[in-house]
Amino acid sequence: MSKIQNQKVSMAEKVGYGLGDCSANLVFQMMMIYQTKFYTDVFGLEGAIAGTVMLVARIVDAFVDPTVGILSDRTQTKWGKYRPWVLWTALPFMVFYVLAFYNPGIEEKGLVALYATISYTLLMTMYSFNNTPYSSLGGVMSSDIKERTSITSVRFVFSTIAQFVVQGLTLPLVSKFSEGSDKAHGWLCTISLFAAVGFLFLVIVFFSAKERITPPANQKNDTRQDIKDVLSSVPWRAMFVLTLFVFITLAMWGSAMNYYFENYVDKAALFTFLDNIGLVATDGGTSVGYHILDAFGLIVTSPDKAYEVGFGVFNMVGALVQFFGVICLSEFLANKYGKKRTFIVCLALTAIFTALFYFPSKYDIEMMFVLNFLKSLAYAPTVPLLWAMIADVADHSEYINYRRATGFIFSGVVFALKAGLGIGGAVLGFLLSGFGYVSGADIAQSDTAVHGIILSSSLIPAAFFFVGMVALCFYPISKEYNEKMQAELTARRSKSDY
């Protein structure tokens, strides 16, 4: 391995790389928060069928994700191993994004379910071919511990911006773009807008980021050995289980809160809350700020329209808190206490605040927003740490085995992420059906269905968070161990025969 001359990464490169995660989250956040509800209320699928659609794609992922890791690790171009994949897959990734939220005129429910399965699976496949190399790229931009944390912190500032936009503006934009009551048209316009922006950002990543870490010069390609090294790695197994259960929880909670706001929260109380913060239409609304809010669909005209804006504002508050939490807390806490300790404490607090959503009455809008503030603040420091820790796992594999398989290591964790996304949505779909939720828009739900929605928004996802926290206790790379490991790897890489 050639000696790394400069471990520092410029802010411009960090920003360019971070835009890629903004692009990925324009897709991921949409699927995490709105996919299940889109299937039940726009496509008209039963909750259990929507859940099955998501699980089928996971079977395909079991073969696709390792393949992507192996292919990207073995790619040799003048641009590196991972950068080219980000560019090559940018356009098809965004095309399949649009198709996953578009019905080409199919009416028979069985065919709708088949179309949903195919389009969702294709989108998830392209997500793997794009995001696995993208994530691996972050692991080879620098081996400096602090620089790596800084890269992931900047990256997740941009992911939080995408979270803010998608979670906060999707429903208002869908309502704005809907011609009369044509929600499908509103969804198509909104997703197309996000896809165009996402494509541009992925192109910028290709021209911005650089690969600085390469495998040892004498390392030979050996897929069987790569698989053995990864599966025998204790830190990799811990991160796999952690990622799986964290994203099961995020997908379940994010989607469930959508149903929570539409079916549990009192619309009149929510309308009053929005009126108090200036988001209700008035005859004298002539300011520039008012017209900007109205342009994005954030001005509500009546209580029956409060759900779209109220849920959007709820998500915006969480995204803003998370944004500042990532900037102000993540790097500071990780450098002082180590990634593992920080992650465990923050995840435990996140689980507690998630469970507390079981208790507010449907009129207590303020308490819901307070809990969201606390939950988002607790979770924020963990957001960039996950990927920084996975990069540390790739270093640990090289440290122990004298071999590096960054793409394969990241592909396994990306599979866990996508499996969590699918399983979380599927569990919610099955729970909705089990509690008697009736699919379709604007349908009054039974008390049993509403109680199931409340449970799915609080106690059940909190339990999954705690499982992830337990898995993290088995992660062996402490702050002290990491510093020793990086010093040894730096010494090895400086030798001409390594």
TrEMBL record:
Keyword presence, Chloroplast: no
UniProt-listed SUPFAM superfamilies: MFS general substrate transporter (SSF103473)
Pfam families: MFS_2
Transmembrane portions of the chain: 38-60, 85-103, 110-129, 186-209, 238-261, 313-334, 341-359, 365-387, 408-432, 452-475
Record key words, sorted: Membrane, Transmembrane, Transmembrane helix
Highest taxon of source: Bacteria
Gene Ontology annotations for the cellular component aspect, listed alphabetically: plasma membrane
One Gene Ontology term from the biological process aspect of the record: sodium ion transport
Keyword Transmembrane set for record: yes
InterPro entries: MFS_2, MFS_trans_sf, Na/Gal_symport
GO molecular function, one term: symporter activity
Homology family: Belongs to the sodium:galactoside symporter (TC 2.A.2) family.
Protein name per UniProt: MFS transporter
